[in-house]
TrEMBL record:
Family: Belongs to the class-II aminoacyl-tRNA synthetase family.
Lineage: Eukaryota, Sar, Stramenopiles, Ochrophyta, Bolidophyceae
InterPro entries with a match to the protein in the record: aa-tRNA-synt_IIb, aa-tRNA-synth_II, aa-tRNA-synth_II/BPL/LPL, Anticodon-bd, Anticodon-bd_dom_sf, Gly-tRNA_synthase/POLG2, GlyRS-like_core, tRNA-synt_gly
Protein's name according to its UniProt entry: glycine--tRNA ligase
Domain of life: Eukaryota
Keywords: Aminoacyl-tRNA synthetase, ATP-binding, Cytoplasm, Ligase, Nucleotide-binding, Protein biosynthesis, Transferase
GO biological process: mitochondrial glycyl-tRNA aminoacylation
Manganese found in the keyword field: no
One MF annotation (Gene Ontology) recorded for this entry: transferase activity
Subunit architecture: Homodimer.
Enzyme nomenclature, EC number: 6.1.1.14
Enzyme class: ligase
Region: Disordered, residue numbers: 667-696
Amino acid sequence: MADADEYGAQVTKQGSLVRQLKKDGAEPEKIKAEVDKLKNMKGELEKLLKAQSASEPQLNRAAFDQMLVRKFFVVPSFEIHGGVAGLFDLGPPACGLKANILNMWREHFVLQENMLEMDCTNLTPHNVLKTSGHVDRFTDLMVKDDVTGVCARADKLLEDAIDHLIDNNPTMSQAEKDEHLLIQRQADAYKPEEIDVLLKKYDVKSPEGNPFGASFPFNLMFKTTIGPEGTSDAYLRPETAQGLFVNFKRLVEYNAGKLPFAAAQIGLGFRNEISPKGGLLRVREFCMAEIEHFCDPNDKAYPRFELVKDKVLTLFSSDNQLSTGKTEQMTIGEAVGKKMVDNETLGFFLARTQIFCERIGMDPARIRFRQHLKTEMAHYACDCWDLEVKTSYGWMECAGHADRSAYDLTVHAKATNTDLVATKMLSKPQTVEIAKIKLNRKQLGMVFKAEQRAVANAIDDLAQSWANFEPFAAKLEADGKAEIAGFEVTKDMFSYEKKNKTIHEVKYTPSVIEPSFGIGRILYSLLEHCFDIRENDEQRTFLKFKPVVAPIKVAVLALQKDKQFEPIISDLKASLMDLNLSSRIDDSTASLGKRYARADEVGIPFAITVDFDTVSSSTVTLRDRDTMQQIRAKISDIVGLLKALCTEKMVWEDVVAKYGLVAGADEEGEEGEKKPQGKTFIQSTGRGRFSRPTVV
């Protein structure tokens, strides 16, 4: 098989088949046959991918990792104490980079789309995450070494024990082997008492030879308690979204009842990963930026979709994943028109995400959107697409875009008996059939006490549509009792009659379309995409950050150590600060070329050099990191030029066209050092600033 993409599609299709067979409860023998086939196919695909990657340019991982640590972009947390897996600290340059990414994200999404931004608590009560499904969904069975206290996943221990048993018994009959493999395939489906029996059967012990205690559920969420009593269970949130969902009622009121609208939040999420790996790609504490767009389930058009409909995206549809294995390039307008992407709102956010990634400097050739297969999506989801970015680890999910239908608001409304609904005015009044209810509040109060109001609200809600109420009424008449919202009511608690009602508005539970961004993964991917090595010099690494996202915009340097340069450099620094341009002064004794290289390595896009011509003519050189070209301009112009370059009002080619290149600069960007004929000083005045520049 020569084409890795096509063969990869066959592997994806086979994996989807295996998941479906397990979901449908197929015969164990049939599942085994398909699993074995899948394993063989994955082996062949790995060979094809290795052959393919050998011909592609590779990231110099050693140089990249060394640069990240040496320049203090990222380091293990608590490093001097041995560190903790899955926890990392960002150093000054990475903090600046992250802040700029978040500022651009807020401007690109929150401000331009008039979103309502919130900042919700990290602590989330148990009942909230129980309602959302996280308490059940994030649980694995664990066992604990009673002597050392070390924990491990029970299902993985069982799987490894069976592998070890089979590998060390070459004469084992096929029938006996199949029996063990059947147990292995079901390892993650056993109940605690079942897996405990099997661990004893296979004599599973810890690496130190100690027996494990009974298995227990391990939740991937970090658990804590609220209050000194320790009785109110809570978790560090695994995502930011739930805070927005539970505040929907206030959000829609703040927005004057108008839909569609979006709420956004930037904050931390926490997941107690069992085996974190891949550096910043899988960590236990991470920054997320999430959007919850609320809209009418029957109208998912987006008012600004026309602005992005011609944006070309690389799309990897579920159909292509199961057939050709090839991506397609098409406009988002065409993709929505063909229903490859389900609706305009989802399509709009895909296009805006692509534009955002390009704005911060990611390589468009290494960006794609992959559609979830039907076997991957939750039962309530309509359509889901992941932003995937190509890194040295392969294609990495950096953002998800999911049409979650009305699931989230529905479950929270049901659990709290709260109306999480929106109202839509009708163009013409309509007549509908309802059930007019007369409650026996005395009887309701005697039976339900504090929950009387919840029961009354449930009856009233159901009565708004006779079609919905009629089956409930029929059961009530037949049995004398019926269940509603988890409560059993009887005929003597209320009476009803069928009536016509004229309505001018309808209430509905909004659908939610959720773009969710992993900022740590985006930051890491950007670092890889911007990492480069100077031609013919593997020791000179540099980062090609776009000026708008670079943590430090300008390096301010002196040609050499000289006291007459100091007031000029100080005034330049102050002038840059006045325009919110971050800068760094490097006044070390290293050669100018080495100082340029140091600035390049942390991604500083521009460097101002003060030399003896500055003293005599009030001019400085300005160097571009990527081309290593230089121009010379008046000090009064230079800060304005930099402001224009760093806000993308100008590009370097515009500057060169206006000022021309400095002659005689070598390939290192270092001019020959000019010796002064005599000592001349520029006197600084006032606050020590140069005259305020006009921004180009």
